[in-house]
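User: Hi! I'm working on a homework problem where we have to compare a predicted structure to a textbook description. Could you give me the structure for the chain below?
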Amino acid sequence: MIPIKDNVPTRRKPILTITLIIINVLVFLYEVSLPPEELDLFIHRYGLLPADILHLNLLPLITHMFLHGSWAHLFGNMIFLWVFGNNVEDALGRIKFIIFYIVSGLGAAFLQSFVSILAGNLFIPMVGASGAISGILAAYMKLYPEAKVLTIIPPFFFTAFVLPAWFFIGYWFFIQVLFALITPPTMGGVAWYAHVGGFITGWYFLDLIYKPKQMKVVHYSTLR
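Assistant: Happy to help. Predicted structure tokens:
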């Protein structure tokens, strides 16, 4: 499922969400400018290897969130970040939002690395913002469960469906858990456990970082 937009207007411009998207795009443009051998070195240096956790090499815990493996990987993550991140930033405020984003990414990284270490898979790098964005999805589901998400469901690319946020994100999370359970951890590809870890981290961390003084009233717009 590909989200297009939601019906929750923001009160202020999502500066940090836009900034994160720009940084991710610029870093990927730098990646594709590198010759294959240099790119491989770059990914192994700044992507997160499970071995980095064991050797307390902490820099990749942050830098891996800004690397991507392909245009499709980048586009998928950035569309999710834009559709859901702007409202979470609006609710949390900019400082709490960036803290929330990084903590969710760290939770994703640690769970994926833990599973990989148990499987003896120490040197396949993990890259991508999807772990942090998974935390954003969890926060959005808690904050705006009744929001509506305009969605494209392949292969029906010429028809858009309007789905409730709780269903869209709940189904998305179910798929991540399912594939995490059925995919051997020794395989490369999608870091399913990172998605699960980021979502769970975001779900519980939101309660620590977001304590509204009064009941939040959400005014939804009409999707077109």
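For your comparison, note the following. The radius of gyration is 17 Å. The chain has one domain: 12-209. Good luck with the assignment!
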